[in-house]
Design goal:
Shape: globular
Structural class: alpha/beta
Helix content: 10-25%
Number of helices: 5
């Protein structure tokens, strides 16, 4: 279920998925046109009701696109993080949002790094020295049924796994990093702890490249 909602001058999209606890996923842009995402955990079956109660509210919004920075205006050690894309139809919106937000948060902890969020309005990305693009190429949710029914093999099969393609280019479009990142989380059922694991690996690649 999806609903367009003006929020902070931009479009917001909300989705929910049923687990033992419902997850309400909200994606929106702020008044500067920057992308954000949040995931709210609610008691079972309450996310659908919350989604029905989200009402559109018109917000005055006067945001002009940032002028091109040019070479002289590029911020050293700055990186633009583009929204995560996925060819996996079963890759949940909650995972996509949380992978993005975890990576942004961890990048900000890298000394001297300046992190730019993806923007709906063009212009700001030209101010970044680097651009990070991420796409999912594999996703397997953990399965308690598989772990229980497949014996010892279930220990390896029934885990939550994410595979990402990572590409970081400089301001000239030259690839600095092009790699595939994998992370898995063992557990009795689907576990979102795998999200921080994969964010950790992505940011470690970036931090090591900055030391060279």
């Amino acid at each position: 279920m999806r609903m367009a909602v003006p929020y902070g001058g931009g479009a917001a999209f909300a989705t929910f998925m049923h687990h033992q606890r419902d997850m309400l996923t909200v994606e929106f842009v702020d008044t500067q046109g920057r992308y954000h995402g949040s995931v709210f955990y609610l008691p079972g079956n309450e996310a659908e009701e919350a989604l029905r109660n989200i009402a559109p509210t018109p917000v005055a919004h006067h945001h002009a696109a940032n002028p091109p920075c040019g070479v002289a205006g590029i911020e050293p050690h700055s990186i633009l993080v583009k929204q995560l894309t996925s060819d996996q139809s079963d890759f949940p919106a909650a995972y996509r949002v949380l992978v993005y937000e975890h990576i942004v948060d961890r990048l900000r902890q890298v000394p001297a790094s300046v992190v730019h969020r993806d923007e709906v309005a063009d212009g700001r990305g030209e101010c970044s020295q680097y651009t990070m693009r991420l796409s999912t190429t594999g996703f397997k949710p953990g399965s308690q049924v598989k772990r229980a029914s497949m014996g010892p093999a279930g220990f390896f099969v029934g885990v939550t796994q994410i595979t990402l393609n990572l590409e970081i280019t400089d301001a000239n479009g030259t690839a600095v990093i092009h790699d595939q990142i994998k992370a898995s989380q063992r557990g009795e059922s689907e576990s979102m702890n795998v999200i921080d694991k994969i964010a950790q690996q992505v940011v470690k690649k970036w931090a090591n490249a900055q030391k060279i």
